[in-house]
Known about the structure:
The protein is an alpha+beta fold. 32% of the residues lie in helices and 26% in strands.
Amino acid sequence: MTAPLTRPGLRRVEQIMGTAISLDxxxxxxxxxxDRLADDVFDWMREVDARFSxxxxxxxxxxxxxxxxxxxxxxxxxxxxxxTCAELWGTTDGFFDAYATGELDxxxxxxxxxxxxxxxxxxxxxxxxxxxxxGGDVRAxxxxxxxxxxxxxxxxxxxxxxxxxxxxxxxxxxxxxGVYERGPHVLDPRRGAxxxxxxxxxxxxxxxxxxxxxxxxxxxxxVAGIGWLDRLPGHTHAIVTDDGRLLHSxxxxxxx
Length: 256
């Protein structure tokens, strides 16, 4: 069998939002065009970090929390994110809660949302073959530079050098939330304590921001999140429990 021809493409990685953001552009476009598209993606991710970071005193979110900025004065992006977070609180029965820590922190939605927006902009610009990876939240479309569907590894929650699953597809939004990297940072808002029961939750769907939030909500639910994800329409999932069981939807696009 003849191997597919590899297109030149572009790959770039930058540290933004306290994590590695990687971009693969796989369209056969002029180098200057690929560089400009990549610049646009990383400029956008830096803009999101400046606006939504809970660690930067001058971010729009922190100014809003301190009462220095009224909602009516906030950016269109901040108002849209807050509105979506409020909707997610309802659809997850309160388990996705941007105020779970007592102060506004929309991080469980923002990173996936930002990568989704970046991907949508690439499609609109004529770069339909790409993969945006924002610290493990991945939006992949089209084909890789080798002309094959994208392969996305889901990290093993006990072995950072291994994967527990590999997903394959040409239109995937894959978000993973877990307690293996930052410790028990996801709170069960009903108990006001760190969530227990699920070590890692991966959600696959059409929108990365929503997949990101649903993965966070499921971790917060603990073992009850398994059944909740089973009933979540339009999405598939993979779960690793605290006792080491790997569970996943039968329709998950897993590579054998």
